[in-house]
């Protein structure tokens, strides 16, 4: 089901810091109980099993680079287990420290012919078809890698494209919870990581380092996992299936709400059409789309299922555009999606202000609605509580200012959701969704084929459609982002990432829903 960077065996949806992972480790050792060396054996056995499964048919030579901590300990065990199964394994010890960790030492006697690396000159020649296993540093990395050890990481990267590089737990050199910047770091094809996502994996700046991530279960203690507190989470199929509500057999179209979309302007009616189609395909009962006069025929022709309201301005929205909306105060629209293709004229900004003054239920704000709020920041204070904002990184920067690095940006995202008491979805490979309580959820579905005009308009339509049906804003957000990405993944599977266009996401939304029933 998943494309690109995520192949998931099991997920604990919490994202833990390196320190919390050490605590999980210690808790498991005490409470399972299990010795640390056996826990290492279990973790390494999962990795060796994955490698046999992935490369076993045409076995390559394996080049296992071990560090001197427990990540290196994992590497030693992997080397032994692969040799035990008859594979051709070359093992190396990178002597970055004076002493090895106890569990690393305990495993050394069981791996013969480990060649020592004390300088770049000791780096081996490797066959082009080999698999490089990177077990030099894991979550214990405490500072950027420098000096000759950095040269070893660069030498491993020199083989990228010729060898397959598999990093154990973390690409060596990557900091789990802070900025790696330009420091030396392995660029992995695969990262086999234990039990939890690391925050660094979810940030765009590390995409090229992490490669495809495989989360392997290593049986860390469930009591610890259930009780540990974390701000960051990854959405998984279990939570999405819990959120999803099948339709009531006795439903009528009024059951699923009457949504209003305020979208489109001269030359940008496509945004309104895409959002409207997506809203209906997401399941809204009724939809009215409010467009400028010249958009009337376009909208009525392209989306006959939707009702259409126009206003007195031929090409854009004016201060009066909320007038028709007033008629629907009772029973009122279930929700409003506003922004796609709207334009940012001053009159439109005034109209947006009026709209936010009149409407107090959660709404969806995207694109030009966000751009107008950036231009007139006092509008931020008028956002209906629990509304959903969906900025892409540029819109986010316009709204809340630039940040030095992506960790700081995440902190800002969460702080703004708390301050404004809204949900904010920062778009990207792993869209980050911040909640009014400060929690941040990452959405793992989606692919680069979705980096195409209009895919954000489709998201606005989906979120509006879900709110309209009565999903809570948080449920709509998590489910909507998941469905949007999954529909994109299903479309790309059939027609390729390259030729995927926004309309395909809408066309595959039905299949994405069906996946939820499996
Ligand atoms: N709970 C878990 O997730 C488990 C983790 N295990 C493994 O244990 C790893 C963590 O082990 P450790 O805490 O021993 O840490 P690492 O093995 O990641 O690295 C620690 C070693 O690197 C040195 N070091 C740190 N930064 C350095 C730098 N910039 N330059 C040179 N040397 C540096 C330290 O002094 C220490 O010797 C995990 O990544 C994982 O591979 C498994 O063995 C078992 C279970
Ligand atoms: N590489 C990617 N992986 C996953 N999802 C992506 C990727 N690129 C874009 N997307 C998704 O596509 C949508 C693009 O939205 P946006 O930038 O607003 O596009 P537009 O303004 O053209 O409608 C977002 O939901 C984003 O998360
Ligand atoms: K590693």
UniProtKB/TrEMBL annotation:
AMP binds at residues 427-431, 456. Its EC number is 4.2.1.136, 5.1.99.6. Keywords: ATP-binding, Isomerase, Lyase, Metal-binding, Multifunctional enzyme, NAD, NADP, Nucleotide-binding, Potassium. Binds 1 potassium ion per subunit. The keyword NAD applies. Residues 236-516 form the YjeF C-terminal domain. (6S)-NADPHX binds at residues 70-74, 138-144, 169, 271, 341, 392, 457. SUPFAM superfamilies: Ribokinase-like (SSF53613), YjeF N-terminal domain-like (SSF64153). Catalyzes the dehydration of the S-form of NAD(P)HX at the expense of ADP, which is converted to AMP. Together with NAD(P)HX epimerase, which catalyzes the epimerization of the S- and R-forms, the enzyme allows the repair of both epimers of NAD(P)HX, a damaged form of NAD(P)H that is a result of enzymatic or heat-dependent hydration. Catalyzes the epimerization of the S- and R-forms of NAD(P)HX, a damaged form of NAD(P)H that is a result of enzymatic or heat-dependent hydration. This is a prerequisite for the S-specific NAD(P)H-hydrate dehydratase to allow the repair of both epimers of NAD(P)HX. This is Bifunctional NAD(P)H-hydrate repair enzyme.
